[in-house]
């Protein structure tokens, strides 16, 4: 023993003296002090929605469309305001000039220069067109309101998508927690099986099956973690952030919503974006009928002109002429025949208006039917969740009893395995029910325009 220690001491002293020892220290891993991991930023559902409203591309595009409709909603675009133009012209002419007056005077110039310059401020103003301008302005106002409605629809749809994805991540986290609980129970079952095997009270198959179940549960955990990462990437996409931006969600899905059919139906009639958009489209179609019919009426246009004119003649009796003044006038246009185009436009607008009304009525009926289906599904899911909560409590108690019986050698590992599988399935169904109930709440609020 003493000789071995002396040999080890000699080897170490020789190693310290070699030039390769410093390199060896660099290559070998050194123990590091464990650094506590920094917690990821916690994001609530409201914060996720707020980020989406600020950054989401679909909302930005819809906001741009609404801005365009608002910019088009002007009296000038409706033709109610005058147009004023500045017009200026100057013309030089080189020509052979010959002129003979009645008194016998004759002017001859083979290279005379003539200059004609004029400038005017011209005004054109439609004074009357059978109220067509007023109807057009009202149509532009309706299109402006339709742009805002479409913007609200985009906001509602994006909010729903964000909430659905957020709570899917929360469900994944709950499922991960459930799997980790099953892993802990499987580890305890494996420990008991190996202890009983070592004591000669159980077969090796109990320990092997426990290890197989443990590995399978660990594989399930890896798959669930990957699914949650994909859901987080999807949420980051909705929030217009890099896909791998880290964050955590509140691992809890609260369901305190109680659907009120009367209130929800009223929300559909007054706040649902699709109904509102169809109603606005119906109003636009009705205004197009009036706008087309107004083409049959006379149109009165007022004109005004502030004119300055100068003419320079290189030859002739009058060498220059200067004129300045103001002219005012009006014109009347009365359509007598247009080849049936006005009638065609009116009839086409009537058909379009009828179609818009039919679409609105059909959508209203469809949404009311969807409302009843969603309320029924929500109530059913609520009852299912209550049963699944009871099943989780019972499955935990059953597993506790089975594990203790297995520890005391009063039952086989098969009973404990079955109890663990029952708990695992109960937790999974409970988490799915929580998520399904939250999805039902989101869909009902979206339907009533309440997101």
Care to describe what's here?
The chain is of the alpha+beta class and 451 residues long. It folds into two domains: 39-73 and 130-297 and 338-447, Outer membrane efflux proteins (OEP); 86-128 and 298-334, no CATH class. It is 64% helix and 16% strand. The strands form two sheets. Strands 2-3-5-6 form a four-stranded antiparallel sheet, with no helix packed on it. Strands 1-4 form a two-stranded parallel sheet. A hairpin with a 5-residue loop joins β2 and β3 (106-128). The longest helix has 68 residues, at 132-199. Residues 1-35 have low confidence and may be disordered.
Topology:
Elements: H1 2-17, H2 21-27, E1 42-43, H3 45-55, H4 57-72, E2 83-100, E3 106-128, H5 132-199, H6 204-238, E4 248-249, H7 261-271, H8 273-293, E5 299-313, E6 320-333, H9 341-407, H10 413-447
Parallel strand pairs: 1-4
Antiparallel strand pairs: 2-3, 3-5, 5-6
Helix pairs in contact: 3-5, 4-5, 5-6, 5-8, 5-10, 7-9, 8-9, 9-10
Strand order of the largest sheet: 2-3-5-6
**Biggest sheet descriptor:** 4 strands, antiparallel
Look at the structure and name the CATH superfamily of the largest domain.
Outer membrane efflux proteins (OEP)
**Class per helix and strand makeup:** alpha+beta
- How large a portion of the residues is in β-strands, by DSSP E? 15-25%
Quote the CATH topology of the largest domain: Outer membrane efflux proteins (OEP)
CATH architecture of the largest domain: Up-down Bundle
CATH top level of the largest domain is: Mainly Alpha
What's the mean pLDDT score?
Answer: 85
Q: How far from one another are the termini?
A: 80 Å
Uncertain stretches of 5 or more adjacent residues:
1-35
| Overall outline | elongated
Query: For the CA atoms, what is the radius of gyration?
Result: 43 Å
């Amino acid at each position: 023993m003493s000789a071995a220690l002396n040999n080890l001491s000699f080897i170490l002293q020789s190693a310290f003296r070699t030039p390769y020892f410093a390199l060896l220290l660099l290559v070998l891993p050194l123990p590091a002090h464990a650094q506590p991991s920094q917690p990821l930023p916690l994001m609530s559902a409201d914060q996720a929605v707020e980020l989406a409203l600020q950054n989401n591309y679909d909302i930005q595009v819809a906001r741009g469309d609404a801005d365009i409709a608002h910019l088009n909603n002007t009296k000038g675009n409706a033709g109610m305001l005058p147009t004023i133009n500045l017009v200026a012209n100057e013309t030089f002419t080189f020509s052979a000039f010959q002129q003979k007056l009645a008194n016998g005077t004759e002017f001859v110039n083979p290279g005379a220069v003539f200059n004609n310059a004029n400038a005017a401020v011209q005004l054109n103003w439609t004074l009357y067109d059978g109220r067509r301008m007023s109807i057009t302005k009202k149509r532009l106002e309706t299109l402006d309101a339709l742009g805002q409605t479409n913007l609200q629809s985009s906001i509602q749809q994006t909010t729903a998508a964000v909430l659905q994805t957020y709570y899917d991540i929360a469900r994944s986290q709950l499922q991960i927690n459930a799997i980790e609980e099953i892993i802990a129970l499987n580890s305890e079952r494996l420990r008991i099986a190996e202890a009983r095997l070592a004591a000669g009270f159980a077969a090796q198959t109990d320990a092997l099956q426990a290890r197989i179940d443990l590995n399978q549960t660990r594989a399930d955990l890896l798959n669930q973690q990957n699914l949650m990462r994909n859901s987080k990437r999807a949420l980051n996409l909705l929030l217009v952030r890099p896909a791998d931006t880290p964050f955590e969600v509140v691992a809890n899905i609260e369901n305190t919503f109680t659907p009120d059919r009367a209130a929800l139906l009223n929300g559909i009639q007054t706040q649902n974006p699709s109904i509102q958009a169809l109603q606005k489209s119906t109003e636009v179609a009705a205004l197009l009928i009036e706008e087309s019919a107004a083409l049959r009426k006379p149109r009165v246009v007022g004109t005004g002109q502030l004119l300055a004119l100068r003419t320079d003649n290189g030859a002739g009796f009058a060498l220059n002429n200067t004129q300045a003044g103001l002219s005012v006038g009006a014109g009347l246009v009365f359509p007598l025949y247009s080849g049936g185009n006005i009638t065609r436009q009116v009839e086409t607008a009537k058909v379009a208006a009828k179609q818009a009304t039919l679409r609105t009525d059909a959508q209203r009926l469809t949404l009311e039917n969807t409302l009843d289906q969603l309320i029924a599904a929500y109530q059913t899911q609520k009852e299912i969740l209550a049963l699944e909560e009871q099943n989780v409590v019972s499955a935990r108690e059953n597993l506790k009893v089975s594990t203790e019986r297995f520890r005391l050698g009063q039952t086989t590992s098969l009973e404990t395995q079955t109890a663990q599988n029952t708990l695992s399935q109960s937790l999974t169904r409970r988490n799915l029910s929580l998520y399904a109930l939250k999805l039902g709440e989101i869909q009902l609020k979206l339907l009533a325009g309440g997101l």
